[in-house]
Automatic annotation (TrEMBL):
It comes from Paenibacillus prosopidis. The keyword Cytoplasm does not apply. This is Flagellar hook-basal body complex protein FliE. GO terms for molecular function: cytoskeletal motor activity; structural molecule activity. The lineage of its organism: Bacteria, Bacillati, Bacillota, Bacilli, Bacillales. It comes from the Bacteria. GO terms for biological process: bacterial-type flagellum-dependent cell motility. NCBIfam families: fliE.
Length: 101
């Protein structure tokens, strides 16, 4: 059975003790974004390798065709997303280069 709790049971000291919000420097933000992009590209590569492994297993008869098709479609969608993100980054870079100071 659910029992009601009061605020004093939770402990107000935990609510008050919070870490101060730190502002990230531009270098840290760039590094974070770069790390995020690298992780995304690695994931797309891993999905592509998974499709190749499943395809090989399908040819031997160890995997059903539906698993191969699902993995293939997921890899294709990931690759399309990656290329669209790349296109947007290139477009943003070109827009910045066209700006006059």
């Amino acid at each position: 059975m659910i029992q009601p709790m009061s605020l004093s049971q939770i402990g107000t000291s935990k609510l008050i003790e919070s870490k101060p919000i730190q502002q990230a420097t531009p270098a840290e933000l760039t590094q974070s974004f770069g790390h995020y992009l690298q992780t995304a590209i690695d994931n797309v590569s891993a999905q592509e390798q998974n499709v190749h492994k499943l395809n090989d297993k399908y040819l031997v008869g160890q995997v059903d065709v539906t698993k191969v098709l699902i993995a293939s479609e997921q890899a294709q969608l990931s690759l399309q997303l990656t290329s669209q993100v790349r296109n947007k980054v290139v477009e943003a870079y070109q827009e910045i280069m066209r700006m006059q100071i």
